Amino acid sequence: MKRGFLVIALCFVAAGCVTTPQPQYVDPLASLGKTSGNPAFSDHRLGVILSDNVRGSMSHLETSRSLISSFGAFTNTTALADADPKFIVEGVNKILTDRFKDVIVVKNAEDAAEKAVGITMLLDMQIKLGPQSGEQTTVKVSGIFVNSAEAVVAQVDGNGASTVPWPASSHMFKPAAGAALAQFAGNLDGSAQLETALATAKPATQRSAAMSRMSRNYPMAPIDVSFAPSTPRPDDIAVVIGNADYGKLGKDIPDVIPAYADAESFKQYVLTELGVREGNIIDLRDATSAQLEGVFGSERTHKGQLYDWTRRNQSRIWVYYSGHGAPAGQNNAAYLVPVDADGARIEINGYPLDVLYRNLAQLPAKSVTVVLEACFSGLSQAGSLMTASSGIYVKPRLSQVPKNLTVITAGGADQVASWENDKTISLFTKYFLTGMSGKADRNSDGRVGWSELDAYLKDTLTYYARRYYGRDQTAQITPLANAQ
């Protein structure tokens, strides 16, 4: 039997005064019942995982309604109805149950295997209620689809926004939520990646805890930063990699707890601020050595997937990586660490930074920018990558950056990339994105130059790494000669 459900995965700003009648609006969900969606979905059972942190946010929405209703006879009933969480519950339920043969809530991968589920969706929602007139209420609905082999096969998002009116008669939550749900439904129907995955989906044949670890232990919600929408740039390309779970395939390597949230945060940046379209994003979570070579090429050839996608002299390329880096080999060269690496053999199954830079420099692109949320000292916030090293520091030989690349890294050669205290996001990623959203624009000219970003990161990233952990961390920016 199909069941209803809901997840809301972000706390929101508390409400301001809500009085006076609510403006009338047309229910954006009304059109959802007019389509049965993509027929390729109709024969499949969908499992849905509700991550632990989202249930608390549902309580926050109920708390807001309780606050509104606490005024007794003076309660604004229209505002109370607008903040009703059932609107989201019924909307998400309708979208999925109209499209899939069966929709069931599962607790984790073991539960999915027992219930013969071939495709599971991690459902996430972020809500920010505008606190006062003129400010925006924003809602984002996300579904991350994972097959029985626990590989991410597709991600579908829907975004909505509305402005709190004057007087502040309500948060205008329903219009924002309705728009997000409608966009989510459209993107779901148009997801070629999901359609392909469903065509070959098979129910899980053995139990595994990896998916439940993903949903419970690793933050996935992006940073709450607003980016100015950009003119679409159909030829631009982004590679976004978040390596968090090193325990599933790797050996003797600690996890990078905030890496999924880091990657999702950067993905939202390239979709909005940079204008990259969804279909031009190579989005990898827990990338293996083979996947890194498949995207960037190898020591033998630079012609990987990214080369194939590049339009000569037209594509701007952005590469983002959150995960481990480490020194290895006799010369302590720097490596990216895939999730299937062995901590004692990084020089064999790591991805050399030299190769990454060399291959990217050979792309016929208009520009290439690399952002690395990683350090290469062999030490990390979660512990040492060096087997039995007792935390001994090994100074890496950092790669020379080619002149036609712009590279921004989380710290210097002898530094550790720090996380927020609650492990929800990495400090460098947090303040890089906050700065690029406009906070670093010191001369108010509408753009953030590299020198402005550098100054902003010293005021924020460097300060908080020292305040939280008593350690030095200074982002390194190697820009093009004419980038300033």
Describe the structure in your own words.
The structure is a single chain. By secondary structure, the chain is an alpha/beta fold. It has two domains: 28-211, 3-Layer(aba) Sandwich (Rossmann fold); 218-478, 3-Layer(aba) Sandwich (Rossmann fold), CATH 3.40.50. It has 15 helices and 16 strands. It has helices at residues 52-69, 77-82, 86-97, 109-114, 173-189, 192-199, 210-217, 259-272, 289-296, 305-309, 346-349, 353-361, 427-439, 450-459, 461-469; strands at residues 45-50, 102-105, 119-128, 136-147, 152-163, 237-242, 281-285, 316-322, 325-328, 333-336, 351-352, 367-373, 379-380, 383-384, 406-409, 476-478. Strands 7-6-8-12-15-16 form a six-stranded mixed beta sheet, with helices on one face. The chain has a five-stranded mixed beta sheet with strand order 2-1-3-4-5. The protein is globular and about 70 Å long. Mean pLDDT is 79; it is low at 1-29, 31-35, 204-216, 383-393 and 480-484.
Short account of what is shown:
This protein has 484 residues and is of the alpha/beta class.
How is the secondary structure organized here?
Layout: E1 45-50, H1 52-69, H2 77-82, H3 86-97, E2 102-105, H4 109-114, E3 119-128, E4 136-147, E5 152-163, H5 173-189, H6 192-199, H7 210-217, E6 237-242, H8 259-272, E7 281-285, H9 289-296, H10 305-309, E8 316-322, E9 325-328, E10 333-336, H11 346-349, E11 351-352, H12 353-361, E12 367-373, E13 379-380, E14 383-384, E15 406-409, H13 427-439, H14 450-459, H15 461-469, E16 476-478
Helix pairs in contact: 3-5, 8-13
